[in-house]
């Protein structure tokens, strides 16, 4: 799955977006991508204008429950505030969207004038010390698809301004991550509310087998999810400052040991019938529930980061 659309024509897209907006919202400074169940992040926007994806040339619709399909424009922060554009719902490769469609909105954000991009997602924890409900500020990633021929930046160099060989050692903005922790402090959040960690990107749509979970944990990942990294890559290629907040919605199921069927059959043959084990499974419904529960905290953090950014702290 390479990048099939090297030179998208932004003109009709930007024209359609601008046509729906007052002048003062046409050049947003901050972009936000709302992950599964996290569209409530933008409830605090003022002067909000919603533009459905269906009316924007080049945009698809998200098919995943918990993802709306619209851009929200508005202002965030005190005083006049900062003009913001938020994606209420994203596109995942597992839905059948091409990699270029997945990252197209990020490229459009850059065309609109966005400088900082805050990406959110729901993710499973691989790290026993990062429990459900924690918000993980991502400082690195492991992208197995990138290592195996599914890098979203595959294809001819986009333009002389787009780096052919994009470094990723500085992918996650130090400045924005610093603001996230300062914001948590301002909001009096407990230390345990926010963690730092490494995100593993997998294609999905299946959740991990125990062996896959163990493999990713042993590889050094703290959380795992099915999105975000294509957006990070496109954002960095477009020159944006990028920050990622992963909300831990579940533990990846990694039992310490497997129950041996051989031992159980032996017990059965000796006259002791053993019940089939109840295996814990992850569900998208649970993912959405945690998203709802933590929406306020996520929203507070984003608002406070914008506040601090405005104050040039
Ligand atoms: O869009 P995000 O990454 O927040 O959604 C996560 C990953 C899958 O799309 C889905 C699985 O429950 O939630
Ligand atoms: N791959 C993956 N994505 C998730 N999104 C939310 N939880 C999970 C998970 O456990 N695994």
TrEMBL record:
Pathway involvement of the protein, from the record: Purine metabolism; purine nucleoside salvage
Database matches in PANTHER family: METHYLTHIOADENOSINE/PURINE NUCLEOSIDE PHOSPHORYLASE, PURINE NUCLEOSIDE PHOSPHORYLASE-RELATED
Record-stated family: Belongs to the PNP/MTAP phosphorylase family.
Main function: The purine nucleoside phosphorylases catalyze the phosphorolytic breakdown of the N-glycosidic bond in the beta-(deoxy)ribonucleoside molecules, with the formation of the corresponding free purine bases and pentose-1-phosphate.
Residues binding a purine D-ribonucleoside, per UniProt: 208, 250
GO biological process, one term: nucleoside metabolic process
Residue ranges annotated for the Nucleoside phosphorylase domain, each copy included: 30-254
GO cellular component labels: cytoplasm
Protein name, per record: Purine nucleoside phosphorylase
The EC number(s) this enzyme carries: 2.4.2.1
GO molecular function, one term: purine-nucleoside phosphorylase activity
Keywords, sorted A to Z: Glycosyltransferase, Transferase
Binding site for phosphate: 36, 67, 90-92, 122, 227
NCBIfam families linked: PNPH-PUNA-XAPA, PRK08202.1
């Amino acid at each position: 799955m390479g990048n099939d659309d090297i030179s998208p024509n932004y003109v009709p897209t930007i024209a359609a977006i601008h046509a729906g907006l007052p002048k003062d919202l046409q050049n947003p400074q901050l972009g936000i991508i709302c992950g599964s169940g996290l569209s409530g992040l933008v409830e605090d926007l003022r002067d909000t204008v919603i533009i459905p994806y269906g009316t924007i040339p080049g945009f698809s619709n998200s098919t995943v429950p918990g993802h709306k399909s619209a851009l929200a424009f508005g202002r965030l922060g005190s005083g006049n505030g900062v003009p913001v554009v938020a994606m209420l719902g994203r596109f995942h490769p597992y839905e059948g969207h091409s990699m270029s469609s997945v990252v197209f909105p990020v490229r459009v954000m850059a065309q609109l004038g966005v400088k900082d991009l805050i990406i959110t997602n729901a993710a499973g924890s691989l790290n026993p010390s990062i429990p459900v409900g924690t918000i993980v500020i991502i400082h690195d990633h492991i992208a197995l698809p990138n290592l195996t021929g599914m890098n979203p930046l595959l294809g001819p160099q986009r333009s002389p301004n787009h780096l052919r060989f994009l470094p990723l050692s500085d992918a996650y903005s130090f400045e924005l991550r610093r603001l996230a922790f300062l914001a948590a402090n301002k909001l009096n959040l407990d230390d345990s509310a926010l963690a730092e960690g490494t995100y593993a990107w997998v294609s999905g749509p299946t959740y991990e087998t125990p062996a896959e979970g163990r493999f990713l944990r042993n590889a050094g990942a703290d959380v795992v999810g099915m999105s975000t990294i294509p957006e990070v890559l496109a954002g960095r290629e477009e020159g944006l400052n990028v920050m990622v907040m992963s909300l831990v919605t579940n533990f990846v199921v990694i039992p310490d040991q497997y129950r041996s069927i051989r031992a159980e059959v032996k017990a059965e043959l000796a006259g002791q019938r053993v019940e089939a084990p109840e295996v814990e499974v992850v569900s998208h419904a649970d993912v959405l529930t945690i998203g709802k529960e933590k929406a306020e905290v996520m929203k507070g953090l984003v608002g406070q980061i914008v506040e601090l950014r405005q104050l040039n702290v």
